[in-house]
Specification:
The chain is an all-beta fold. The protein is built from 1 helix and 48 strands. Helix content is 1%, strand content 50%. Strand 3 and strand 4 form a beta hairpin. The longest helix is centred in the C-terminal third of the chain and has 8 residues.
Length: 616
């Protein structure tokens, strides 16, 4: 084909503009571009990556080739470096001869293309590939096979397989909106779907546009490009299609008849399309969709425990026992909802397993006083027997079952403990129907028992709760509604006062809770399961929000992040090393890198305090 230099326009689409896509093309202006490319990707400074039969070419803003990488490739995608001053970018394409995804480093200043180590074979033919840059600025690649097999890889040295996905069959195009962590895939014969791109979450999908009889989309999607708060596509006969985010739904924009063969995102909201007249930039009037989620600081996990024995939703709630003689020999307790109670050391190694049956929540209190003795106890809810299971903890951190104490509940769920000022132990247990029972643990003749002290309820399902032994306050989570506070003391009325409803900071479900006791103030940490974050409040009125954070992945240590957390626990004890100011332990709903059964992650409190600028 004869090479023709044709004018194009790069039009930046401002999110503040209103209206749908206009019908005109932009007035032409002179620019240089590799117009004969089979695939094209824009680079910073007006440079381009062009993929054709000669290979992958780096083309300057003046239209002159700077470098060529000889390979037969397809499915090109690119991300500029996080810091523009570095003058580079990272690209991924599929090497058609080797059937492997090939990362390429672009050095714009030196004018070079550097072939990086290929991603290991996926084990299937790659039909679609696209990049994703997560909130930690880590680069990922999605690989999709014709039969719906898919993989998500983290790029690095070495590349790591993060997870496997089940996507639709017949996917040939995918793109990721980094700001919203959304993976778009076009399914042949069906339409366009949106998936969560963040590995720390389920691979649930929502429809963007479907063909009849399920929707109004006509024909197949031939290409995708991300716009601010939306997505563009090439449809039947080269029409330019667009959809804008409208909360959890998608709003279709009027189609444009352009006869386009290719679609390229230029960044900043601009598009280029290849028509019979060459590459052109459609003039758009684009109203950006719903704002992206709140950006939260990310802290790294320092340790992960061995996984539980069962796959699926098995792990749930941790607790921490502090060894009073040597805190480095402390223990982490974790409930296994399908089997019993697990005990770990601070390196995450399992030290003990107690086959107590289907346990849900667990809590610990130390230095309790019963019959003239000082004891440490743990208590868990047993869902088959509707009972509280009580465990003793010896000086070496060994647990032994001491009693099973029946409750009056029909579907026992969560629990938390309160050490009274006298050194006694109170237990709060709840039912899925909203009821709470407040039990006082007793011991007579060496045998443990329980006495019902009071009852109260929330309107809908609760689970997580925590009692502050210093202040005598009890915090209660009504999962879909709000965080509440009342008195933990048995001789006080259980009048619930709202701390915060579900909304800006707390995203349902409200789950695990823990109290961190600093030298100057105490903090309440709450698992906001709906957006996989952890919200920190002052543990005293007016319960000011100090911020929220997420637990990210540490590729160097090979530890994935934490998401959809059920239970958590925090301690201000000096455990040594990175935990000199204490640690936070959280349940991880999705084990990645590699995939496996659920486990628990440990975070240094010093990292949390630094991220949120907390006082001691």
């Amino acid at each position: 084909m004869k090479k023709i230099v044709s004018p194009i326009v790069t039009l930046i689409v401002l999110a503040a503009l209103h209206g749908a896509m206009s019908a005109a093309l932009a007035a032409p202006q002179v620019a240089k571009a590799p117009l004969d490319a089979e695939e094209l990707a824009a680079l910073p400074g007006g440079a381009w990556l062009a993929l054709d039969k000669r290979g992958l070419r780096l083309v300057g803003a003046d239209g002159i080739d700077r470098a060529t990488l000889a390979l037969r490739g397809e499915r090109l995608d690119v991300r500029p470096d996080v810091h523009p001053s570095s003058g580079g970018a990272l690209a991924v394409l599929v090497d058609s001869n080797l059937e492997q995804a090939q990362p390429v480093r672009i050095d714009l200043a030196a004018g070079t293309l550097i072939r990086l180590p290929a991603i290991p074979s996926a084990g299937f033919g790659i039909e679609a590939a696209c990049m994703y840059r997560d909130a930690q600025n880590l680069d990922h690649v999605f690989l999709v096979g014709a039969d719906g097999q898919a993989q998500q890889w983290l790029l690095g040295e070495p590349h790591r397989l993060v997870r496997r996905l089940a996507l639709p069959t017949g996917v040939e195009h995918c793109r990721v909106d980094d700001a919203y962590a959304t993976l778009f895939v076009a399914e042949e014969g069906m339409g366009l779907w949106a998936y969560g791109a963040d590995a720390e979450g389920p691979s649930a999908r929502t429809p963007v546009a479907l063909r009849a009889p399920y929707g109004k989309l006509k024909g197949e999607i031939q290409g995708l490009a991300v716009l601010p708060g939306g997505v563009a596509a090439l449809g039947e006969n080269g029409q330019l299609l667009g959809w804008r985010r409208a909360g959890a739904a998608w709003q279709a924009l009027p189609a444009r008849a352009l006869g386009a063969k290719q679609l390229v995102a230029l960044g900043g909201g601009a598009l280029m399309v290849q028509t019979k007249k060459g590459w052109q930039s459609p003039a758009l009037a684009w109203k950006a969709g719903s704002a992206p989620p709140r950006s939260l600081p990310i802290v790294m996990p320092r340790m992960q425990t061995a996984p539980v024995a069962q796959m699926g939703d098995a792990a749930d709630d941790p607790a921490i026992w502090v060894n009073p003689l040597d805190a480095s020999k402390s223990r982490i307790l974790g409930s296994n909802k399908k089997q019993g109670l697990l005990v770990y050391d601070l390196d995450g190694r399992q030290t003990q397993f107690l086959a107590s049956g289907r346990l849900n929540n667990v809590d610990v209190r130390q230095d309790l006083r019963f019959e003239g003795q000082r004891v440490d106890l743990a208590l868990a809810t047993q869902r088959d027997e509707q009972a509280m299971v009580l465990y003793t903890i010896d000086a070496g951190g060994e647990l032994a079952e001491a009693a099973r104490l029946p409750t009056g509940l029909g579907d026992i769920y969560g629990t938390c403990l309160y050490r009274t000022p006298e050194g006694g132990l109170d237990a709060f247990v709840n039912d899925k129907d909203g009821r709470y029972e407040h039990w006082q643990i007793t011991r007579s003749g060496g045998k443990y028992g329980a006495r019902l002290a009071r009852q109260f309820r929330v309107a809908t399902q609760p689970e997580g709760c925590v009692a502050d032994d210093r202040s005598g306050l009890l915090f209660v989570g009504e999962e879909d509604k709000a965080l509440w506070v009342t008195s933990a003391k048995a001789d006080q009325p259980a009048t619930l006062e709202m701390v915060m409803p579900v909304g800006e900071w707390l995203h349902d479900d409200i789950e695990g809770m823990g109290i961190y006791h600093g030298d100057k103030r105490s903090y309440l940490v709450v698992s906001s399961q709906g957006n996989s974050s952890y919200v920190v409040f002052d543990a005293a009125p007016p319960f000011k929000v100090r911020g929220a954070f997420r637990v990210g992945m540490d590729p160097v240590a090979g530890i994935d992040g934490a998401s959809e957390t059920d239970g958590l626990e925090v301690s201000s004890a000096n455990f040594g090393g990175p935990y000199a100011r204490g640690m936070l332990v959280v349940h991880d709903g999705f084990k990645r890198m590699p995939e496996g059964a659920q486990n628990y992650k440990a975070v240094a409190w010093d990292d949390v305090a630094r991220a949120l600028k907390l006082e001691d």
